[in-house]
Each structure stands twice: as C-alpha cells, then as structure tokens.
Design brief:
single chain, 75 residues, alpha+beta, three-stranded antiparallel beta sheet, 3 helices, 3 strands
Length: 75
C-alpha cells in the first residue's frame, strides 16, 4: 500500500522509486513498455519541477499501476 497526499498530482521518478521500491532502471523500462508517465522536457511546464527537466513524471494513476505491476527491487 502506498500512501500519498491527495493534493499531489505529479510525482518525479525519484519519488515513485522511493514510494514503490522499484529501482530507476526498472522504472524507466516499465514506463516505456507500459506507456506510463511522461518525459518532462520543458522547463516552463512547472516551477516546482523546473530542476527536473528531462526526467519522468508520473500521475497518481501511473503510481498505482506501477505498484500493482512490479514488485520491489531486491538489488
């Protein structure tokens, strides 16, 4: 079970990795193959995520799907 704030709409790849226990390598692979998340390339998209340009962002739905699809990484 993953607990998140209901007001949070987007999660960075680091937050998703920490919440789900999926390493970044596996997270990127799953995101590509299952068409989850999106690649944030525009610095103007959001002030909060400006420093995260060119990294993956995930929605609440993406986070829940990843939690079900993949077990925690053991490495």
């Amino acid at each position: 079970m993953v607990k998140i704030k209901s007001s949070q709409k987007l999660f960075t790849e680091d937050e998703v990795s920490r919440l789900t226990g999926i390493c970044l390598e596996h997270l990127h692979s799953l995101a590509r193959t299952k068409h989850l998340g999106f690649l944030a390339r525009a610095r103007e998209a959001s002030e909060r995520y400006a420093e995260q340009a060119e990294s993956w962002l995930f929605t609440n739905s993406d986070l829940m799907i990843l939690t079900v699809l993949s077990p925690r990484c053991n490495h």
